Amino acid sequence: MRTSRFLVRSGLTVAAAAALPLALTAQPAAARVSGISVSTTGSTVSVVTSACTQINGSWGTAALLGSAQASFAQGRQVALSGTAAGQSAAWSGVSPGTYTVVVMCSNGSTAGTQSVIVSTPATPSPRVTVTPTPSRGVMGGLGGAARDVGPIAMGVGGALVGTGVIAAAWFLRRRSKPYRL
Questions:
Q1: How far apart are CA 78 and CA 63, in angstroms?
Q2: Which of 92, 91, 86, 93 is nearest to 102 (CA)?
Q3: Within 10 A of 64 (CB to CB), how many other CB atoms are there?
Q4: What are the φ and ψ backbone dihedral angles of 101, each rounded to 5 degrees?
Q5: Contacts of 22 (CB under 8 A, 6+ apart)
Q6: Distance between CA atoms of 51 and 103, rounded to whole angstroms?
Q7: Looking at the whole model, is its pTM more than 0.90?
Q8: Residue ranges of the alpha helices (H) in the chain?
Q9: Helix, strand, coil % in the chain, rounded to nearest 5
């Protein structure tokens, strides 16, 4: 009797341990079977499905619903196109916001519903233009001027430097003799 209880208990434990991963990975039926795949690229929203069948040359219709729209008829509708392997529809020029994509097959069934967020397009980076540097490099002077200095400017500059040297020598000489006023 003791052995049978042990086997029953261990068997239940093994069964529960085997069922736990399945229970953790299981999703509700609505979450598993969407039937559509929605993607955005810039201001373009596209939907792809393989759940619809062609009836009288039509696969079905897809609608893009804004936040203020409540029914399929109020959305921007586009006919599905494609093959039996997959059908698709796209909307371009969609402004930023949150939208709901609904796909109705031609037989009247809903292939799926999915929300999508269209974000603002990234601003283009400013263009950088490259200008060649002067062949002689940066020259000294006020503001790094890159032009030749004429003989008049050289003479005036030399006179200013000479005057500065003479004034500095005179000041230092007078400072070294404190008894003179």
A1: 6
A2: 91
A3: 22
A4: -105, 125
A5: none
A6: 10
A7: no
A8: 2-25, 29-32, 151-176
A9: 30, 30, 40
Amino acid 67 reads: S
Q: Residue with structure tokens 């052995």? A: 3
Quote the tokens at residue 7: 């086997």
DSSP 11-28: HHHHHHHHHHHHHHH---
DSSP state of 68: T
H or E element at residue 36: strand 36-41
Kindly give the confidence (pLDDT) of every residue in the chain, 181 residues in length, as a single tens digit, with 9 standing for 90 and above.
555 554 445 554 544 444 444 444 444 443 344 688 898 888 889 999 988 888 888 899 999 998 888 888 888 999 998 888 889 999 988 888 899 999 999 898 888 898 898 887 666 667 777 766 656 555 555 555 556 678 888 899 999 999 999 999 988 888 776 665 5
Q: Considering only CA atoms, which of 71, 67, 58, 68 is closest in space to residue 102?
A: 71
* Tokens at 44, concatenated: 């373009």
* Residue 50: burial class (beta carbons within 10 Å; 0-12, 13-18, 19+): middle
Helical segments of 26-67, H only: 29-32
- Encoded tokens for 31: 């979450």
